[in-house]
Write a structure and sequence with these properties.
The structure is a single chain. This protein has 476 residues and is of the alpha/beta class. It has 17 helices and 21 strands. The strands form 5 sheets. It has a 7-stranded mixed sheet with strand order 8-7-17-18-19-16-20. A 5-stranded parallel sheet has the order 10-2-1-14-21. It has a 4-stranded mixed sheet with strand order 13-12-11-15, with no helix packed on it. Helix 1 packs across helix 11 and helix 8 packs across helix 9. The chain is globular.
Length: 476
């Protein structure tokens, strides 16, 4: 028995299952819901295309490009329009273009003269002690000052984590930023001196990575993975318990009827709050309940379609992020139809807004009517939107994005300890390996590699025992 169970049909679980199947390893993916993809969901209606969750995939790793190739999706792939690279931040109630070069930065109205002058001191500020865990806000205040925290970092964090820089850990949420400081003693010097290393690694920073999607939206990726896996996917199969046995693991599902399934290894790839509900029975006595402590930010997405003439702003960019000090209701807006073709019919535009997060969690769960009222009021102020939308789509996630807050390391340590104590049990996904869509795909690849190594070692051990050899291989 060398089959693998994967719990959770999000992008991490789907990627891991696909990579294992490529290696010829039997795999069963258990998904509690009636569809795969998790937060990735695309809606097409009346000529508009709306993404309920992520709007694009950053091609930060060669593994992402490999997955697209292996799924024969290269002809369906779309890269964002180069004309949509412009980004906006709100200052004084209006969108201001973010500078794209040092020259543009010093001429930009986004930051005051004193904030710009403050940058010249950054290379001379001491690095923090390696054993001190700072929040992102503490880190930025120390190195860059209050204005950069308010008008650069705060809106960026709202757009990525829907989180609070005063809570997020630099070490856990932005380890590369901390590594630059620790190695070079300066963020500015690190950008120049570390360029050669980044080029050698073939990894691309999220800031400069190509943005991509597919002709039919991001769900085309998860639908294709589902099609490739075929009947290896079991929908409507919530996992009730996982029990360690002498031969591997028993996975008990509780769908239409309670069933036991035997596997040699298990990958836990559901959101952590879902995993916390599963009863775990191991030789070590560990429980998954601790994973339920991980904080998630609630987020609602509202996608609007407007007639082009009803929006004054040219929408000539990626979108706009909003600092908390500017006191808007929405976290920001993406110019979806400027990014990719086919997101709106001729003569129309699509704008995706987000509301809630740790900044205003109650707004993420209030009524759609109230959210719509607030969002449209903000879009009128920001982008000169007049007239009613001709298309709307709303989706709310009560637990959207895990927060890698100060102290989050204890959860990563717990997961490592659990794996080490439970042979054949693995964990992977956005609750551990990074919150972006690209991070989750890479996590699926790496989880598949770990599972394949375990299965191979287990098979070798079985073979050696069969032949009476004492040279056993450690399978973990």
């Amino acid at each position: 028995m060398n089959s693998v169970a994967i719990i959770g049909g999000g992008i991490t679980g789907l990627t891991a299952a696909f990579k294992l199947k490529q290696r010829g390893i039997p795999v069963t993916l258990y998904e509690a819901g009636d569809r795969v993809g998790g937060v990735i969901q695309t809606v097409k209606r009346d000529g508009f295309l709306a993404e309920c969750g992520p709007n694009s995939l950053l091609e930060t790793s060669p593994l992402i490009k490999d997955l697209v190739r292996d799924l024969n999706l290269e002809s369906k792939r779309l890269y964002s329009d180069p004309r949509a690279e412009k980004r906006f931040l709100v200052r004084g109630g209006k969108p201001v273009e973010m500078p794209g070069s040092p020259g543009q930065f010093f001429g930009s109205k986004l930051f005051s003269a004193s904030a710009k002058a403050r940058l010249f001191a950054e290379p001379f500020i001491r690095r923090s002690p390696a054993d001190v865990e700072e929040s992102l806000a503490q880190f930025v205040l120390r190195r860059l000052g209050q204005e950069f925290l308010d008008y650069a970092i705060n809106p960026f964090v709202a757009g990525v984590y829907a989180g609070d820089p005063a809570k997020l850990s630099v070490k856990q949420a932005f380890p590369k930023l901390l590594a630059i400081e620790q190695r070079y003693g300066s963020l500015i010097l690190g950008q120049f001196l570390g360029a050669r290393e980044r080029k050698r690694s073939k990894e691309v920073s999220k800031q400069s990575a190509p943005k991509m999607s597919f002709i039919d939206g991001l769900q085309q990726l998860t639908d294709t993975l589902h099609k490739e896996l075929n009947d290896s996917v079991r929908l409507g199969s919530p996992v009730q318990s996982i029990k360690q046995t002498a031969d591997g693991w028993t996975v008990t599902t509780c769908g239409a009827s309670t069933c036991d399934h035997e596997h040699s290894a298990v990958l836990l790839a559901s959101p952590s709050h879902r995993l916390a509900e599963i009863k775990l029975q191991t030789d070590s006595g560990h429980s998954l309940a601790k994973l339920g402590e991980i904080e998630y930010a609630p987020v609602a997405s509202l996608v609007f379609g407007f007639r082009r003439e009803d929006v004054a702003h040219p929408l000539d960019g990626f979108g706009v992020l909003i600092p908390e000090v500017e006191r808007f209701s929405i976290l920001g807006a993406l110019f979806s139809s400027s990014l990719f073709p086919g997101r709106a019919p001729e003569g129309h535009v699509t704008i995706t807004t987000y509301i809630g997060g740790t900044r205003a969690p109650d707004l993420a769960t209030t009524s759609f009517e109230r959210q719509m009222e607030l969002a449209l009021a903000d879009l009128k102020r920001l982008l000169g939107v007049n007239g009613k939308p001709v298309f709307t789509h709303h989706f709310a996630f009560r637990k959207a994005i895990p927060q890698y807050n100060v102290g989050f390391g204890k959860y990563r340590e717990f997961m490592t300890e659990l794996e080490e104590a439970s042979s054949g049990l693995f964990l992977g996904g956005h609750f551990r390996d990074g919150i972006s869509l690209g991070d989750s795909i890479v996590a699926g690849h790496k989880s598949a590699e770990r599972l394949a190594a375990f299965v191979a070692a287990r098979a070798l051990n079985s073979k050696l025992r069969h032949h009476g050899s004492d040279e056993a291989v450690v399978a973990k």
